[in-house]
Amino acid sequence: MSTGDLLSIEPQELQFPFELRRQISCSLQLMNKTDDFVAFKVKTTNPKKYCVRPNTGIVLPRSTCDVVVTMQAQKEAPPDMQCKDKFLLQSVVTSPGTTAKDISPEMFSKESGQPVEECKLRVLYVPPPRPPSPVREGSEEGSSPRASISDNGNNGSSDFGVVSKAHAERFDPQDNSSETRALITKLTEEKISAIQQNRQLQQELVRGFVGRSF
């Protein structure tokens, strides 16, 4: 938790479960530690990439406010999954009864005479959560794609998951067919061996019966 004189911020890092071509959101909770009305404003080094709601607001005395930060869908993964984007949260004490509509850029200017508290937040990309795989009764197809996704679950992009799942679906049926053919061959060999043993036993019984007759 990042703690200032006016607001406590949780978390102090914006963690996005990075996936290509998907909008991803994470939230911040601002807690007013004072008995005053506190105005806040959120800035970022990359405003075209993120949407912040609300980007300005009022946190009432001893209360909290949730801020949702949404990252726009990305077409490419950054090198080494590192993000250099940063956020700056500014806060300042304002007069009682102030609303979000009353907030102006001048309130956060040092020339206003009011001390402006600033907190810098960095952005981290984390692996996306692993989606549950449907399991079909009486079928092995449900388990095979899940294993492939699990093996590649630490990759930073959902594209790898898609490739892994398609790869498993494309090759699993062949693997199952090979196992089936091997099982059929084994059963056939056992059946032939049993028939041969049965015939040999019958021949021995016939020879023994003929010997006793003479």
UniProtKB/TrEMBL annotation:
Annotated MSP domain ranges read 6-126
- Annotated Pfam families: Motile_Sperm
SUPFAM superfamilies from the entry? Answer: PapD-like
GO cellular component terms, alphabetically, are: endoplasmic reticulum membrane; plasma membrane
Q: Which Gene3D superfamilies match?
A: Immunoglobulins (2.60.40.10)
User: Per the record, where are the segments of Low complexity compositional bias?
Assistant: 141-159
Lineage: superkingdom: Eukaryota
- Output the InterPro entries linked to this UniProt entry: Ig-like_fold (IPR013783), MSP_dom (IPR000535), PapD-like_sf (IPR008962), VAP (IPR016763)
Chain intervals for the UniProt region annotation (Disordered): 126-179
Kindly list the biological process annotations in GO that this record carries. Answer: endoplasmic reticulum membrane organization; endoplasmic reticulum-plasma membrane tethering
Can you tell me which family this protein belongs to?
Belongs to the VAMP-associated protein (VAP) (TC 9.B.17) family.
UniProt protein name:
MSP domain-containing protein
Organism expressing this protein natively? Rhamnella rubrinervis
**Lineage in the entry?**
Eukaryota, Viridiplantae, Streptophyta, Embryophyta, Tracheophyta
